[in-house]
What we know:
Layout lengths: L4 H27 L21 E4 L5 E5 L8 E3 L4 E9 L2 E9 L19 E4 L9 H4 L9 H15 L3 E4 L11 H4 L2
Parallel strand pairs: 1-5, 6-7
Antiparallel strand pairs: 1-2, 3-4, 4-5
Amino acid sequence: MAVNRGRIRRIIAVFIIVLATGTGVYAYLNSKSAPAAAGQTIGGSDERRGSYFTVLDESGKTLFTTGHMLHVGDEFISEDDTRYEVIRVDEDIALAKAVGRMEALPLLPVMGAQIESGTGKVAIYHTHSSESYVPSDGTESRPGAGGILDVGASMANGLKKRGAEPVHSTTSHAPHDAAAYARSR
């Protein structure tokens, strides 16, 4: 039985091509993530992937829609200063109950005319100290160390250069929710 070396080489070449193609297809398919279910988040953030929530009040009126994950107990403040609490989440619908109103702080007198230029203290604080900026920070939230703190520091430096005495507080008012406003007072 004579061995046909040319034929063996062709068989080996075809085998290598099939193996390489199969490996490439396998790697390609495994690099693509499967579509996420409606409730899954993007990269561990609180942002929803592929869908959004519609938030209704108790009468069924749509308050807003959001791509952020919602949970029972979440709070938000509407544009008319009504404070709502999420009381139920079912699939893509969240039901919110009005729990009060946010009272506006009293107006303070304009103080600019009362202090000499370049003197006086300026307070800078952050109600949501985790807020970040995706383009510069790579994420929209960094607990306790958000990019917003860098903005405050830059603002403090600018005020200091202009003769003011900035007091920059980096106190965390976590967690990152509507109640942070009350905790920051």
